[in-house]
Design goal:
The chain has 418 residues and is an alpha/beta fold. The protein is built from 15 helices and eleven strands. The chain folds into three domains: 62 residues, Alpha-Beta Plaits, CATH 3.30.70; 272 residues, no CATH class; 67 residues, Electron transport complex subunit B, putative Fe-S cluster (3-methyladenine DNA Glycosylase II, Chain A, domain 3, Orthogonal Bundle). The longest helix is centred in the middle third of the chain and has 17 residues.
């Protein structure tokens, strides 16, 4: 099985050295040097935006296949709610769940069920938090806050993701039913995006993840198309429209039920704009903020197959036939739903050294930046002139790498009379 720090990777053989990716990366994590792109690992949040925009398909998501998990005695499918939005004419998720049992899984645990429980827990915990409370469901957004928005770290909801909660509850359930040991049970998430795959190996808010692996939704989809035919006894569904609606932007917010003062936003560029305004305290009377890195929400992940806007319509139609919710929570929040580690700011953009060294480095950076053209053209291999100046200060680039400066110098030389 593949093990990795990031799901988003680069195939250098396919890379043509264009600058599409460096311009769209939300954390300025990509550079082009010597005709090839490379990813700065500590800045990457696995949002998949580079996969979305690369015309040469050089950016890819790394993940395992279903065949990699045959070593477990019991295999549990953890279907993301967005999986249901990939299929036509569904009146409930039962055919999809039945199909999962036919393609190799021994049981399933709907992530939508865990989402409903998270919604209930959110309503209980947010009175104790600074407003606005920011959802922790999208790992790409949480990582973005971690590296770019330190003043918002304390606003992030300290609840595990529905994926993680589903795995924890599923293992407990299977252990009680079968007597198997925890390590003999494999919980496999069917993922719409690379950020959730990376979260398994690098969990947010938890020391370890109970999810044992992930497969891409686009790989499972064709297997399910055949398996969903001729199902005589579909299994009972375990979640309602509330949990399923988490797959689309705004679904989580509507499920909380305690307030109408929420903001829901999707698409990484829109998310950044909202976070900047939140950090500047431009919003008032907002209790809850739901942010999804992918356009349309999880239905817009790069590992899905359906157009995200068509998928949102399918989810809406599916919800008409389903009960509103099938899950509730007691008076207290179980500890398995809470983070066991704090979210801490990661200063990956800051220059290193003691206070005096950093002051001198930033002074040199501003001096260098003042001499750059300010065009943010990207031809140097960095997304902006400021990033280029930062690279020069860090010793990752030379001032002569600026094409505009070199051109001006050449023009000056040519203008000297012989």
């Amino acid at each position: 099985m593949k093990t990795y720090t990031h799901s988003v990777t680069l195939d250098k053989d396919l890379c043509q050295g264009c600058i599409n990716c460096i311009k769209r990366c939300p954390t300025e994590a990509i550079r082009v040097r010597e005709g090839k792109a490379y990813i700065i690992s500590e800045r990457c949040i696995d949002c998949g935006e580079c996969i979305r925009v690369c015309p040469h398909h050089a950016k890819k998501a790394v993940y395992n296949t279903l065949a990699d998990y045959t070593g477990y005695k019991h295999l549990v499918a953890l279907p993301a709610p967005s999986l249901y939005a990939q299929f036509n004419n569904l009146k409930d998720p039962a055919p999809v769940l039945a199909g999962l049992l036919k393609i190799g899984f021994d049981s399933f645990f709907e992530v939508a069920k865990a989402a409903e429980l998270i919604s209930r827990a959110t309503g209980k915990i947010w009175d104790k938090m600074p407003k606005p409370v920011i959802s922790s469901a999208c790992p790409a957004v949480v990582k973005l806050i971690k590296v770019r928005f330190p003043r918002l770290v304390d606003h992030v909801l300290p609840l595990v993701s529905p994926m993680e909660l589903a795995a924890r509850l599923a293992k407990k359930e299977v252990m009680e039913k079968t007597g198997l040991k925890k390590e003999e049970i494999g919980c496999i998430f069917i993922s719409p995006c690379p950020a959730k795959i990376t979260e398994i190996n690098n969990p947010i808010g938890s020391k370890n993840s109970s999810v044992d692996g992930a497969v891409a939704m686009k790989d499972i989809y064709p297997l399910l198309l055949g398996a969903m035919k001729d199902i005589s006894q579909p299994p009972d569904i375990t979640a309602g429209a509330l949990g399923v609606s988490w797959a689309a932007g705004g679904g989580e917010s509507e499920g909380i039920g305690n307030t109408d003062n929420y903001l829901a936003c999707d698409g990484i560029e829109n998310v950044i704009r909202v976070l900047e305004e939140l950090e500047d305290r431009r919003f008032s009377n907002i209790d809850f903020v739901e942010l999804n890195a992918c356009p349309g929400g999880c239905v817009g992940g790069v590992l899905t197959v359906e157009n995200p806007y068509i998928a949102k319509t399918k989810l809406k139609n599916l919800g008409k036939y389903m009960p509103k919710s099938l899950n509730s929570l007691g008076k207290s929040i179980p500890t398995e739903m809470l983070w066991d580690t704090n979210l801490e700011y990661s200063p990956v953009f800051e220059l290193q050294g003691d206070r005096i060294q950093r002051f001198m480095a930033y002074s040199r950076l501003e001096e260098l930046l003042a001499g750059l053209p300010g065009l943010d053209c990207g031809f140097c291999g960095a997304p902006t002139c400021r990033c280029f100046a930062d690279d020069v200060i860090r010793g990752k680039a030379k001032k002569s790498d600026c094409v505009v400066i070199m051109r001006r110098q050449m023009d000056e030389i040519k203008s000297i009379p012989e």
